[in-house]
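Think of the structure tokens as a kind of shorthand, similar to the way a musician reads notation: each symbol stands for something richer, in this case the local conformation of the backbone. In the example below we present two proteins back to back. Begin with the first one, reading the sequence and then the tokens, and try to describe in your own words what changes along the chain.
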Amino acid sequence: MYTQLSELLSQSATATAAEWHGALAGGVVRGARASLDHWLSLCFGSHWREQLVDETLARERLAEIENDIKGQLLRDQMEFVPALPSDEAALAERTQALADWCSGFLHGFGLAFDSTQSLDTEIRQMLGDLAEISKAEIGDPLVDESHEIAYTELTEYVRVTVQSIFEALSPERESRGELH
């Protein structure tokens, strides 16, 4: 999915494919109630269309991705996977994409947040963890197996955390008549 999303973005895109996917996921998890066009304008500014290679194809694909995210989270089979580069990509690239994904997720989640509702402590802690992961980088130029293991563990933590937040907010979405 990461490669497909990357192919939709123009060279002048200000956000990465991981950020786009993260923002869509954040909105789904929080229960954004805007149209896809409006949502993308909120997340990426009024000129979001200029960041795409083919707007028509991108709209179709972004709607499919949003539906895929909803389906993965709703099936409750822990199927959700953030869109990140394949394992063949350099660890530094994958780490940056994971950080970008978390940043996008927090942005999307925050934009969909209703300030009249509070989040319980556990959700706030998980969001704080995602905020820390959004700062991830490879500090050591010598990458070894321990770095790969750490990346794999962080990616799994993000995956499970997003599913957990989605499930924890399910009663709230149900009370608003949204997906559950």
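Once you have a description of the first chain, move to the second and do the same.
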Amino acid sequence: MGPRVTITDVARRAGVSTATVSKVINERYGVASGTTTHVQAVIGQVGPKTRGVEKMLRRIGFDYAHRIDPFDGGPHFHARIDDLVLVRRMVRARVAPPGTSGAPGTAREPGAAPGRGPRYLVAPATTAAPRGFRAVAVVGAGVEGGAIALADEVRGALQVDVGVEVGVLSLDGHEPAPRGV
């Protein structure tokens, strides 16, 4: 529905009392489950001020869930991880030692200036580590033969060792490909 919607607005649109809307919002007892679902759907409707966000989210793989977002009270969108465009574009590679072809800051194309070249987001392929998700933006890396060479500093930031699998996502819109892209 958008910002500045009152309980009265929701009640009117849902065809229920303001007390019912209040009970739904505050998760109180005394409201039939079908009514709760209906009121939540009314609150979560996409309005004119959220159409742009909806369009962007749909473009990258999200769907409208027809309910309230628990964090901001607006429309809720969801997606399966495998349906997200960025996840589908990600490739997996094994970490190679520094100095191997493609390591950021170690082996650049002849004549390439430092810090120039394709940009990638690299993250451990698993988030089972105690500190959760970590990712580092690197420049000049390339996936070659299923491997990506990462400088010691990058491996340290990611807390990964040589041989560990990482996900690699192009920040420039092209696929992580063999060296020379």
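Compare your description with these statements about the second chain. The first strand starts at residue 63 and ends at 68.
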